[in-house]
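Subject: Protein record for review, amino acid sequence with backbone structure tokens
How to read it: Take the token row as a discrete description of the fold.
Enclosed: The protein record, placed directly beneath this head.
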Amino acid sequence: MSEQKALFDQFLQTQTENVGELLDVLKQETSAIAARKSPDIATTAKQKLALIHRIQLCDAQIAKCPDAQSPSDNAKQQIADIKTTLEQCHELNEANGIALQRAHLSIHKLRNLFQEAAGKNEMTYDSDGQASGSRTLGTNVKA
């Protein structure tokens, strides 16, 4: 086996490990979102970014390999497996993003309810629909 072929195979193996690790981190993120553990969500977000960076670097190294132009059948299968795992990562990341958006919206609505309960007569809304207290609303009017 040539040295270049061995290097190409090593890059593919590293990429397989990277995308597998990314999928595991995304599953951890899903669990953290479901459990509403914000420190764990933040940790997984940092891990995702680091893994995505590693995946991009490895992809650039793979692209530079001459064997990438005409990979063996085994390498083709490994590349297909990597792409399948990356697609799973993409789908899971999208689902996690939607869940986080929903959680953010729920917190926003809950905050508005608390503000409303604190003083219905003291509530006003800005142009973005954000609730805020208005104890001074109209108290500076001179007319």
